[in-house]
């Protein structure tokens, strides 16, 4: 109810309630407006660039809240603006952590965690891959049981890749072929 939201905002000296990280189809959603048309409650999905295939066939859209400084006593305007989905191939994202930034970021991360040795990015990525596979193991078992007509109990590389695409990350561009040797033991 807008009247309840307006009362909450007034008691707390707020103009608008902004919720974050509930996925919205267009990046953001106006939840409530006042009778005068002012925004009272907005949901902003702030996690951009989820990979396509991870529940998002073409990537996802995200919203960003921009707060600009205004002169004292001046009314601050609020608006919701959605943008197109933004996605970079994961191999081209190294410029975000360029050569000068990467060592400084890693050092700060180590200091913050009180750790002197951190696993490499490769090790961390493989751990995340294992976690993804582990989390969908019931679906994988069902997939393999359905597709193992001869009851061999084994899968070929092609069958394993098909299972990963069907159950873990259904994206033809995801490099399961290159990753297959890591979680599989001969």
UniProtKB/TrEMBL annotation:
Which InterPro entries did the record assign?
Metallo-depent_PP-like, PPP_phosphatase
Q: Name one GO molecular function term.
A: metal ion binding
Keyword tRNA processing part of the UniProt annotation: no
List, separated by semicolons, the cofactors it needs.
Mn(2+)
Q: Which keywords fit this entry according to its UniProt record?
A: Manganese, Metal-binding
Record carries keyword Ligase: no
> What is the protein's name according to its record?
Uncharacterized protein
